[in-house]
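Continuing the series of single-chain predictions for the mutant panel. This is the parent chain; the variants come on the following pages.
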Amino acid sequence: MMVLNFKKRFGPDVKAGLKNNSFRVDRKDGKVWEPGDKVRLFTGMRTKQCEKLGDSIITHRFRLGFRECLGPQFTFMSADQFEECQNYHASLRKRYLPAWSGDVWAKSDGFESFAEWREFVKETHGLPADGWLYCWQPLNEVIDHE
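Parent structure:
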């Protein structure tokens, strides 16, 4: 099972189903989670304030890179994945109009703008940063995963 830990500021939005994706840099062991994998969501892991936010299922994953002076850069493995990303982005645009593409992705990840999201990634991981944008079924829509 995949485990994701979030900074405290993101916990309420994850729990409410408002934040249902997260950028994660490439793991040193090369592990990549797949759609259909179970995910357990926490805030404050390894602290006394640890809180389990819920369990869900990975629905999508998109290859993503951050650079110093550019918008989000998606790297697609196939035409099908490109179409899947476009369809997912279209569903996000309905929630976050009127925002340009980078801001839509940023808002879905709990940030006000792409510039804020990139600055967070820069402070956390440094740039350039390559990884995956993992998306899961919003916790307010999860029924049962057993």
